[in-house]
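Page 37, continued from 36.
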């Protein structure tokens, strides 16, 4: 299966994995910055953001990255907590593969969509809905 297709069309943050990859690239092969970056579909926004942030600051924690992502996806501060919960639950889904987690994420994103204008939030939400 070509990794450029299939599951890569779904929002799949893999924050811990991104941290490991950024550390490996820097420590083992000496690749700084964004040398390994490629253009990606809109639903890969979270993956791409994690990669770029860790390329510029490898000391960031998952909590910090998720907070930043929530701030970019949700323009209204009152919606950011719900978006953070959705991102962390989506991260958990990719390791647990529990459909309940995915359904929770879908509800969380759809709960804030009517109040938000972010196209990235819409793309991520649609990707989760399709995956569900």
């Amino acid at each position: 299966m070509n990794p450029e297709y299939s599951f890569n069309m779904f929002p799949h943050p893999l924050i811990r994995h991104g941290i490991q990859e950024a550390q490996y690239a820097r420590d083992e092969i000496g690749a700084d910055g964004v040398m390994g970056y490629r253009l990606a579909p809109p639903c890969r926004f979270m993956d791409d953001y994690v990669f770029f942030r860790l390329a510029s600051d490898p000391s960031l924690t998952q909590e910090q990255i998720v907070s930043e992502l929530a701030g970019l996806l949700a323009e209204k501060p009152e919606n950011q907590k719900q978006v953070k919960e959705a991102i962390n639950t989506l991260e958990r889904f990719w390791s647990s593969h529990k459909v309940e987690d995915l359904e929770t994420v879908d509800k969380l994103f759809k709960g804030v969509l009517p109040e938000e204008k972010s196209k990235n939030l819409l793309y991520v939400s649609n990707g989760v809905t399709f995956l569900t």
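The chain has one domain: 6-131. Flag for discussion at group meeting. Confidence is low (pLDDT under 50) at residues 36-40.
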